[in-house]
Structure formats: C-alpha cells, structure tokens
Amino acid sequence: MENKEIIKEVIENFSLPGTQPKECIVYGSGHINDTYRLTYEDEAGEKRFILQKMNKDIFKKPEELMENVSHVTAWLRKKIQEAGGDPERETLNLVPTNDGSSFYVDSTGDYWRTYHFIEGAVTYDQVEKEEDFYQSAVAFGHFQRMLADYPADTLHETIPDFHNTVDRFAKFQAALEADVCHRAAEVAADIQFVLDREELAHKLCDMQADGTLPLRVTHNDTKLNNIMIDTRTRRAICVIDLDTVMPGLAVNDFGDSIRFGASTGAEDEPDLSKVWCDLHLYELYAKGFIEGCAGALTDAEIEALPYGAILMTFECGMRFLTDYLEGDHYFKIHREGHNLDRARTQFKLVKDMEDKLEELQAIVRKYK
Ligand code: ADP
Ligand code: GN1
Ligand code: MG
Q: What is the mean pLDDT of residues 272-289?
C-alpha cells in the first residue's frame, strides 16, 4: 500500500463523510491504476468509496483525462435520467475535492480521484455465468449508443495511438531491437509469432483509413472486469474505467471483450492447454453487442467484428510481450514472467481464432 501519510493527506482533501475512514483496503484487479476501497460508518450505516491514484507514467496528462471523465459521466448521467434509469448506479459518480475539483494532486505530485462505490454489484475476472457475459455485451453496446452523439472532437486523446496496431507493431520491433533485459533469446518462438503477422497488424487500420470503418466514441478497454453486474438482477448496470473513452472503432470494443471474456482460460493462465476461444461465448457476446448497439453498426462493421477480436487479442499479446522485453514497466505484474504468460495466452487465442475464422464470420452474419 501507498505511504499511509500520503493516503491520509489525500483523503482529507476530498469531500468525504469524515476525516478518516474506518477501513482503507487495496481493491480490484486492474493492471493500471492503484485502487483502494474506503469505508465510512455513521448512524445511517456504512458508506463506501473508490479512491484511485492515476498512473501518470501511462496517462501523461491527468488533467485532460479527468476533463474527459467529468464530461462523459455528466453526459451519461443526463442520458440515463432521460431514459428513467438510476444515474447513481448506472454511471460513475465523482466525489469532488474540498475545493470542488474532480482530482487532487498530492504533495509528491501524484494525481488522485474518488468515486462513489457502486453497491450491490460486482466485477468478474472470468465469465462465471454465461448470461452475465451476454448482459455485459448489451451494456457495452448500449454504452456506445449513449455516446453516439457525443461531441467527439472535445475528447482528449488520453493515450495517443492506443489501438493503432501498426504503431504497436513498430513499438514491439523497437523493444526487440533494444532488448534491454536480454530476454529476447529465450522467447524466440513468441517473437516469431508476432513478426509473422506484420500484415495482420495493418488490417483494421487500413479499413479505418479508407473509410470502411467509421470512427465512433468508444470505450477502448472493454474487458469484463470493467463492467459492474448487479448481484440481484444480474443485469450489467454500469460501465466503469473510463480512462480510455476516445474516438475509436466499434469492432475494437467488441474485440477486447472477446479476447478477455470468450477465452476458456484466465488472461494469465500458464497452462495453455486450457486456453481456447469458446464459440458459444463468442456468439452470445456478438448477439448482445449487436443488439446493444441497436442498429447503429453498419454491415461493414458487423462483417469486421471477427477481425476486431483477432486484432485486439494480437495487439494485447504484443503489448504484454513488449512490456516483458522492456522489463515490465507498464502492466502491473504479480509474479516473475507474468507478462510473458499473458502474452502467450493471447497468442494461443489468436491462433485459435485464425483457425476458426470462417465460423467466427458465419456467427456474426446471423445477426446482420
Ligand atoms: P484499472 O484501470 O486499474 O483497471 P478500474 O477503474 O477498472 O482500474 O478499477 C479497478 C477495479 O475496482 C474494477 O475492476 C472494479 O472491481 C473496482 N471499481 C472501480 N470503480 C468502482 C466503483 N465506482 N464501484 C465499485 N467498484 C469499483
Ligand atoms: C489494462 O486498466 P485495465 O486493467 O482495465 C489496459 C488495457 C489492456 C488490459 C489487459 C489503459 O486494462 O488496454 O487491454 O490491461 N489499460 C490501459 O488486461 O492500458
Ligand atoms: Mg479496469
């Protein structure tokens, strides 16, 4: 845990129910931010909050990021209200600092924000009930729908070239060239897997450049643990982790969910014999996502959904392997070789999806 003195300083500067909480624990399994859950108690009962230190090595302009989050959540709040929903639970709600800002900069220069904790809902690191996965698909599709008329040019690009797979390929090559940790020799087969797919890396970028695929406001990090599922109704109620909401491709939002949720194994499963792309889960998600987008997806987008799945998985595998080669500075790791294990599950899935491409295509065509 972060230095206790810093956490104390940070908490005192947010407009929270008391000076110090009854409990402050490290929370969640995100790879990027440092997340804590705060619990306060008074006569009315318990009240909980999520406190996050933003990763400023990754998000170079946290002020701009928080401007995006404030504006997007305000926009969603309005849409949810208009639809008769509950904005307290169906979108993130920021807690302001004592002087009304959406973030606090601590005495060491780190950036923090606080959200109301969404009660009675959970996130999953793997699909436990397939209906949950279907519900998450509807919700991610619906999320895109709610942002369809958002003024995209007012959004800051929080990570430039985030899903530019051509650029990701070049960054991988640079990491390989530098080989700062002298790790390349022992992972030659994994490196070759990437190098063999340079052409693949261009596939969706080309379709974006020639206008086949339109730019939309997308989430860009649609893994299952970025959606909260109501424990009572089992409906996916709230899309969280809004740090990468930016203009992007709908097929990538679809693809990132498939990469994570339609795998039969965990993202970091060391036993690759357990890792496959489950076609049944893929179909459930495709159906839900297309329904959630409610007619907004063009035929060309639906047709390209399987490539979204393959490319987002390939990209993520390249990113994990790049990070492994560079000494694990980007994704949080919890064991030696963690990023390598992660890269290998992604490559196993890419190969499996390549082998199943015709089936993946036939499935999405059913929902055109
Ligand atoms: P990261 O960018 O590191 O993935 P997230 O914003 O996704 O960070 O948060 C990490 C985890 O914290 C989520 O997967 C979720 O379980 C939990 N979480 C985040 N925000 C909330 C919230 N408002 N209410 C309840 N849980 C939350
Ligand atoms: C990170 O923040 P989190 O843990 O939800 C990453 C995603 C990757 C994912 C892989 C900002 O997501 O792009 O797909 O890990 N987020 C960022 O699990 O880089
Ligand atoms: Mg997350």
A: 98
